[in-house]
Amino acid sequence: MYKVKPYEDNIIIKCVPSCVYKTKCYFNPNDLKFKDEVVSPLANLSLSELEDLTKQQNKQFRKLERLVNKSNELCDDLKLSDLCIQNLSTQNNELSKLENVFQKQETLFKKIESLNQKVRQTYEEMGLDKLTTDFEKMDIKKKKRIPFKVDLGLFEKIKRVSSRVLINRNVEDLAIYVEPSTIPMELLNFIDLLSQNVKVFTKFYAHSSVFSQLNNEIENRFLNIDDLFEGLRFGINDNRVDYDLGFTFIWKKMESNGPMLRFSNGSFISSDAQIVNYVNELLPQVNRISEESLKKNQTTSPLLKILKSF
Questions:
Q1: Rounded to 5 degrees, what angle do the CA atoms 95, 99, 105 make?
Q2: Which of 149, 152, 154, 153 has its CA nearest to residue 301?
Q3: What pLDDT does residue 91 have?
Q4: Distance between CA atoms of 171 and 169, rounded to whole angstroms?
Q5: Is 89 helix (H, G, I), strand (E, B) or coil?
Q6: Which distant-in-sequence residues (6+ apart) come within 8 Å of 158 by Cβ?
Q7: Distance CA 224, CA 218 (A)
Q8: CA-to-CA distance for 231 and 227, rounded, in angstroms?
Q9: pLDDT tens profile 223-236
Q10: How far apart are CA 12 and CA 7, in angstroms?
Q11: CB 94 within 8 A of CB 65
C-alpha cells in the first residue's frame, strides 16, 4: 500500500460563505412548452435532483424504445409494415414521439381486435365454438401433492452434530449420481450415522435428462425423500461454509445401477463401499464410521425404515 499526503500542508480558510445562492431552473419553460403547474416545481429542485430526474426520464425513454421494438416485431409478423414506428432518435420533438407511438399502437390494437373477431366468427361458422367451450371447462390441472410429514418423535433420541468439527479444513461437497429407479440405502445409512459425528447437509436433485421419463410413482418418491430430509433438517439451514461435509445426490440415467461419486477432474468412484471408504479417509480416525456400526444401524435406524416404505 502507498502512503499519501496532501499536496499543500498548510491550508488556510480565509472566509466562509454567509448565504446560499439559488440558481435558475435548469429547464427553459419556453422550449419545453409545459404548463406552469409542471414547470413551477422544477424551479425549486437542486442540481442533483434535476440530474436524477433526467436519469429517470432517459430510463423511461429506453423502456419506450424497447416497447416500440416489440411493437414493430409484431407488426412484421402480422404483415402490417405501415404501422411500424420509425426510429425515435431521428425525431427531435419529444412530444411528437409519444403521439406517434400512441397513435400507431392504438391502430395496431384495433387491427388485432379485428383479427380476433374474425377468428371467433370462423369458429362459429365451422361449429367449433362448442368444442372450445368444452375444452375450457375440462379440469386438466394436476392434483395438488400432499407433502410428506415427518414424525420427529422417532428421532428424539438421536443427537446430531449442530456445529463444525473439522475446523481446520474447508467443507467437502460431494456430488453423487444415482439411478432414478433406486434409493442409495447404504449411503443414506452411512450419512445417518455420519451426521452424529460431524456436521453434514444433504440435497437431492433430478437431472434434466430424466424429467421427461419420470412417472408419478418415481416423482413422488423423489419428493418424499426430499421432504423427509428437509424435515430432519438435513438440508442447508446454515451457511455452506459452516458444514464439514455436503452430499448432493443427483438422480440421473446411468448404465450401472450403483451410485457414482464424480469429481471435478472427471474421475469417479463407483459402488457404495468405495464411496464410504473414500469419505472415511477424509475424516480423523475418531469420526470414522465402522462396518459394525453400519450393520447395526440398518436394523435400528428409523430413517431407513421410512425410506424402505417409499
A1: 145
A2: 154
A3: 45
A4: 7
A5: helix
A6: 196
A7: 10
A8: 6
A9: 888 888 888 888 88
A10: 14
A11: no
Q: What is the pLDDT, as a whole number, of residue 42?
A: 59
What is the H or E stretch that residue 245 is in? strand 245-251
Residue type, 214: L
- Residue holding cell 450403483? 258
**What is the full DSSP assignment across 118-145?**
HHHHHHHHTT-HHHHHHHHHS--PPPPP
96 Cβ contact partners less than 8 Å away, ≥ 6 residues apart: none
* Whole-prediction pTM: 0.53
DSSP 265: T
CB hemisphere CA count around 94 (13 angstroms):
9
172-178 and 245-251 strand pairing: parallel
Q: How far is Cα 34 from Cα 64, in angstroms, rounded to an integer?
A: 21
Output the DSSP codes for 159-181: ----S-S-TTS--EEEEEEE-TT
State the DSSP H helix or E strand holding residue 63, giving kind and residue range, or none if neither.
helix 47-77
Question: Is 214 in a helix, a strand, or coil?
Answer: coil
Cβ atoms 145, 137 nearer than 8 A? no
pLDDT tens track for 178-192 = 988 889 999 999 999
Q: Give the amino acid at 103.
A: Q
| CA gap 115, 103 in Å, rounded | 19
From 96, 45, 44, 100, select the one nearest 71 (Cα to Cα). Answer: 100
Distance spanning both ends of the chain, measured CA to CA? 61
